[in-house]
Design goal:
The structure is a homodimer of 244-residue chains. Chain A is of the alpha+beta class. Among the domains of chain A are: 85 residues, Jelly Rolls (Sandwich), CATH 2.60.120.10; 82 residues, Winged helix-like DNA-binding domain superfamily/Winged helix DNA-binding domain (Arc Repressor Mutant, subunit A, Orthogonal Bundle). Helix content of chain A is 41%, strand content 20%. Chain A contains eight helices and eleven strands. The model of chain A has no long low-confidence stretch (mean pLDDT 95). The first copy, chain A, binds a DNA duplex (30 and 30 nucleotides) through helix 7. Chains A, B: GO terms for molecular function: DNA binding; DNA-binding transcription factor activity. Chains A, B: Keywords: DNA-binding, Transcription, Transcription regulation. Chains A, B: InterPro entries: cNMP-bd_dom, cNMP-bd_dom_sf, Env_Response_Regulators, HTH_CRP, RmlC-like_jellyroll, WH-like_DNA-bd_sf, WH_DNA-bd_sf.
Chain lengths: 244, 244
DNA sequence: CGCCGGTTTGAAGGGCCTCAATCGGCGTGG
DNA sequence: CCACGCCGATTGAGGCCCTTCAAACCGGCG
C-alpha cells in the first residue's frame, strides 16, 4: 500500500491519530488507473461509488443541451471525487482524467461506516469539503461578475496553488496541463477568447509563456486582477475536538 | 418551542428517531429575528456561528472589488446557513434577509457534538448538503454556458420549487419576492436586461405577470428553456444505516 | 402631494462569440 | 526519412448579446 493521499491532505490541517489514519487508509485499498482523456464516471450513469484521487489531474464537468461543456472543478491528488453520490444514485457530473491518473474507489457504505465509527474524522472531512464549496462560490462570482481576463488569470492562479500544495518545488513557473479550450470551458469562454486573454496578460507583463509553460511575473497584480483568494491557506480546523 | 424546521426538512428524505429529533431540536432553541434588508453576517466578519432558517427568505452574496454583487444562494426555511464557518473563522459571504425572517443560531461546537453523538444524523445532514452543492454547480453551468433568458427562467423555477416545498399550496402562480435587481445579481445580469428577459418570457407565453406575481404558463417548455433540474426531488437517502 | 424604490423603455457601445484561415508540433504510415 | 493528418494555438473580420447611460413611469408611504 502506498502513502494515503487523503491522510496527507487532511493531515495538513489537523493532526490524525493512528486509528484515524488507518481508517482513511482503508478507503484507499483498491486502485484504478484512468488514462489521460478517459472518463471515470459519466453524467446520468448509475454510480454509488466515491473515489480519492491518488495521482494525476482530473476534472468534473457537465454537458448542456446545446452540446457546450462547463467544467465544474479541477481535481488534484488527495481530492475526494463524486461526493454527490451520497445523495444521488445517478451521477450529476462527468469525471474525466486530464493526465494519466490513479484513483482509489470505495463504496458509499464504507464512508457511512467511517462516519459511524470515526465521527471526529468524518467531521474533519466534512469541514474540509466546505472549503471546496467556498471555492465553488468564488468561481460562481467570477463567472457572474468578472471579466474574461480575470477569469483566465484566476484559473492560472488556482492551478498553480493546487500544484504547489502537492509538490512544494512548484514556484512561479509551472505547466498547467490544460488546453485553451479546457480553460475556456472552465471559465465560460471560447478557446479563441482565452487565447486573446492570455496574450493580453502576456503583453501586460503579468505572465510569460513558452511551449505550454506559464510563469507568473507579477503575482500581486495578477491576484488583484483575478479577484483571487487562496481558500486553502485560510483553513482553520483547530476547533475540532481532540483525537480520542 | 415551535416545530423544528430542520426536522421537517430532513424528515422529508429519511425517517428520524425520537432521539435524533430531539438532538436537532436542540439546535433550534435560540431564536433571532432578522428584518427585511438587515444582514445576519457580513463577509470578512469573524463568526463561528451557524444558523438554521426558521421562517422567511434570505440570501447569501459577495461584493466584488468593483462593487458589483453576486448572489450565491437563496435561503428557505429549514436551510442550514453559513456551514463554511466550519473551516473559516471569517465569513466568506454575507447573509441578509429578503423578507422578515427568524433564524436559530448555534455554535459550531454544538454541531461537532452532534456529529460525535449522532453520527447517523450528521451523515444525513452532510448528504443533504451535497444536494446544495449540486445546485451550486447547476448555477455555475448556467452562468457559464446559458443565455440570459435561461438564467432568469431558472431562478423563477428554483424559487417556485423551494416555496412549494415549504408550502404545499403554492402552485404555478407565486410571488417570488425578489426585485429585478436581485434576480440580476443572482444570474450575473443587469436589472435592465432581466426586465427585458421577463418581458420576452411573457411574450412567448411562458409566464404571466401582474404586480409582482408570476404565473408559470408552460412549465414543460420553461424547464427546457432554462435547462432546469429539480435536484431536491431526486434525492435518495435510503442507503443510510437504520436509526439506532 | 411629493418623494423613493422599483420597473420599463430607448439608444448606443463594447465584450465576447462565430466563422474562417493559417500555423506549428507530433505521431503515424508509407 | 519524409509526407500526411490531426489537434491545438493563433490571428482576423464581422456580428450579436448584454451593458451602460438616460429618462419616464408607477405604486406606496410619509
Amino acid at each position: 500500500m502506498t502513502v494515503s493521499r487523503f491522510v496527507e491532505r487532511l493531515g495538513e490541517f489537523v493532526p490524525l491519530c493512528a486509528r484515524e489514519q488507518a481508517a482513511l487508509g482503508r478507503l484507499e485499498e483498491r486502485q484504478r488507473v484512468v488514462r489521460r482523456g478517459a472518463t471515470l464516471v459519466r453524467e446520468h450513469d448509475v454510480s454509488t461509488e466515491l473515489c480519492i484521487l491518488q495521482s494525476g489531474m482530473m476534472m468534473s464537468f457537465v454537458i448542456l443541451a446545446d452540446g457546450s461543456r462547463q467544467i465544474l472543478r479541477f481535481l488534484f491528488p488527495g481530492d475526494l471525487i463524486s461526493l454527490p453520490s451520497l445523495v444521488y444514485t445517478t451521477a450529476p457530473e462527468t469525471v474525466a482524467a486530464l493526465s494519466d491518473s490513479v484513483v482509489c474507489p470505495f463504496d458509499r457504505a464504507m464512508l457511512a461506516q467511517l462516519a459511524m465509527r470515526q465521527p471526529r474524522l468524518f467531521l474533519a472531512m466534512v469541514a474540509l469539503d466546505q472549503a471546496e464549496r467556498v471555492m465553488l462560490t468564488d468561481r460562481l462570482a467570477g463567472l457572474g461578475r468578472t471579466s474574461a481576463k480575470a477569469r483566465v488569470a484566476s484559473v492560472l492562479l488556482h492551478v498553480r496553488d493546487r500544484l504547489r500544495r502537492f509538490d512544494g518545488t512548484v514556484g512561479d513557473s509551472f505547466v498547467p496541463g490544460l488546453t485553451q479550450e479546457e480553460i475556456g470551458d472552465a471559465t465560460g469562454l471560447t478557446a479563441v477568447h482565452v487565447n486573446r486573454m492570455l496574450r493580453q496578460l502576456e503583453e501586460e507583463q503579468l505572465i510569460a509563456r513558452e511551449s505550454g509553460r506559464v510563469t507568473l511575473l507579477d503575482e500581486r497584480k495578477l491576484i488583484r486582477a483575478a479577484n483571487y483568494v487562496d481558500r486553502l491557506s485560510a483553513i482553520d480546523l483547530s476547533w475540532l475536538p481532540p483525537a480520542a
